[in-house]
Specification:
By secondary structure, the protein is α/β, with parallel strands linked by helices. Helix content is 44%, strand content 15%. It has a six-stranded mixed beta sheet with strand order 1-2-3-5-7-10, sandwiched between helices. It has a four-stranded mixed beta sheet with strand order 4-6-8-9. Strand 2, helix 2 and strand 3 form a beta-alpha-beta unit. It is globular. The chain starts with 8 loop residues before the first helix and ends in a 10-residue tail after the last helix.
Amino acid sequence: MADPTPPGEVTELVRHAVDDEGVARITIDAAERGNALTTAMRDRITSLLQADSADLGVRVVVVAAAGERHFCTGASLGGPRPAAPARPAGAPEQAVGDVARTIRRGWQQMVEAVLDCEKPVVAAVNGTAAGGGAHLVLACDLVVMADTAKLVEVFVRRGIIPDAGGCYLLPRIIGLPRAKELMFLADDVPAARAEQLGLANQVVPAADLEASVATLASRLARSPTRALAMTKWLLNRSFESNRSTAFDEEAWAQEVVTGTADAAEGMTAFGERRPPSFCGW
């Protein structure tokens, strides 16, 4: 699928490439400002995730960042913002509903694009992931962190509440008391503790991060993509579902997946006692 974003500066700040194995790599490239996301960069990431989700040539998505110090430090305070609609005479510059609308259409949409992506999304965390950047990490399916990286729930340090879906994501990963601890105190969470809490799947030496992520992505790219997509969907829904609904959805998901080419190949390969060769559909 073609890159959904027209050429321009934002394509240099958020790079996108797909290799021969079907590994799509989205790279935030604004290291000089902590890889903070402007509105245009954030929206490009959302568009790329949505495009990769639909692209049969993509089997897995890696979200990475340039530089060694920062993965993503949240929203950039600079850069152009979309023009606001004209307001009636006497109306305030900011009315009730404006901030909520901005949140819904902005960082929440990007986090939803990760959660709803029909491909596994792997975070390659090279450095500090703070604020919305930390929540971008939490939304990913698998997280590999450099041993020098850290997560920071920085919001209360700024006198604001967590956004970008953090209060939804964090307690589902580490439980409510620990989530309150991280968000109330806003302490840095080094990679080793992130792994201990269950926020990271792997912690590797910084020099090995790229190779470790590449190995993991390659393994996922060779897996049955539609089976992974339905497994991800069922797992993500499990916290919002009851047992009856979960069992029903599991049965229908199995119905869908057993009709795929990869399911046929998996069963054939099993019968022939050979490794399967999955095509992704």
